[in-house]
Amino acid sequence: MSSEERSYQEQHRPASDFSSRSEYLDNELKIMKPRRWKLNLPGRDFRFEWEDLVPALAGTIGIIAMYSAVMMSWADGLTQAWDHVELGKEFAIEVARVEMLIPALLFCILASGFFNPRANLAGNHGPMIPLIGTIALAGAHPLALAILLGVFGLLLSYFKGGSKLVNLTGEGVAGGLLVFLGFTGAMSQIGDIQSWATSLETADAAKGSMGYIGLVVLAVNIVLYAFLARIGKRWLAIPACAAAGLAIALALGAGFDLTFETEMGLPNLNPVYWWGSTDQGWMLGLPNFQHFLASLPFAILAVAMWSPDFLGHRIFQELNYPRGAKNVLMDVDDTMTTCSLRQIVGTAVGGGNITSSWGTYMIPAAIAKRPIPAGGILLGSLCIIVAILGFPMDVAVWPPVMRIALLVGVFLPLLEAGMQMVRDTKDSQSAGICIFAAAVTNPVLAWALTMLLDNNGLIGDKERAKTLSIFDRIIIPASVLIICLVAMLSVGMLEGQYGIQSLL
């Protein structure tokens, strides 16, 4: 019987049979045969390994930070946009806890853990966070936005649009996109750490200037990250560096900035409380037609931004997994399905997250050479525990923990992966133009534009263009570019544009 006909359970061998831990993990990835939308069981279809704790911890830290940022942005934006709405930090924390309970159970543990381990976990759409204030001021409704985004995502998934776009993105374009996202994200986190450290000067005047704390935290973590990379343990970067950031900041006297305000318990899990009236929960009531109309361009934009996001996570698996591990690579279309359903369900029960493929889980999981299911189950369990306990959320969003975790767990690996993909002159040309276009406009529009140019041989590999049909060369890339451009113009996302809402 060939290896393709034998089950995972039949082919599994204990770690003691291999000369190194890395070889054992490589073999596990090669022999796994996840069942798509069928029950996958521990032992029969996958196993839990201690390496699964790393992406689970990393994803938990990352999602607490992201959810908190999203909910505070909604609270600030809606308070400005609506006369009768007044939302603050307490509201934001409660909504974040709702997002960490029900969606974690349904979509981390059940969907990606047990029923489709090739669908990456549905996390947070980071690039949309800066737009949430604009979304609220435009008159959009979080529930209307979620329904539209979910419907558009399901349609794209049904017609296999996500995987098609991933396959049409050349290596040079993908590499340039990852380099830009990694570099700009890293600089942003470094700036945030320095801003936090500088602000400590006014927190306790008797201690004088404390701006040096940020430099010490960054310097120690640079050395620690380099050491982990040198010994082949880079997958430990998020928990190790986040713990180091916490310890150093406390040791240098920044502890007065860390306060525990979130109490233990369950948030209100009744959807009627959150959406049933204008005097409780979100204080918005159910959405009407105008809310859907105002939410439409933002929903289109969010779904258009999914493909490059998913692409980066899939590439990270391909770069770190061994050859022959195709069965465990994330399925882009199935991930879109779970993200779409999670978007609708998560918001319907009272949440406010804008979802996408979970990068702070997938990137460290790929580095640790682990497939999706076991870590996803652990991550979902951790999210539920943290949401109930409350106080770990205060630690995870503290700048020397949160910013360092995002820096070493997401943005530096993205930068490294992008540089690995730029292998020759043709790739460097496509990558350079993608980076330049992203700096002028934004990463999504740059991806769409350079994909069109690259697929027609105007940049990059001219021979590759000859292998593509006119549908793949022109029709699909041009349509994507037009959709992205129109959506961005309509919401005023491009520099110097007013947006449809301000013109009406």
TrEMBL record:
Keyword Cell wall biogenesis/degradation listed: no
Alphabetical list of Pfam families matching this protein: DUF3360
TM region(s), chain numbering: 53-74, 135-156, 168-190, 210-228, 235-256, 289-307, 372-391, 397-419, 431-453, 473-494
Keyword Iron on entry: no
Keywords carried by this UniProt record: Membrane, Transmembrane, Transmembrane helix
InterPro entries: DUF3360
Protein name: DUF3360 domain-containing protein
Provenance organism: Photobacterium frigidiphilum
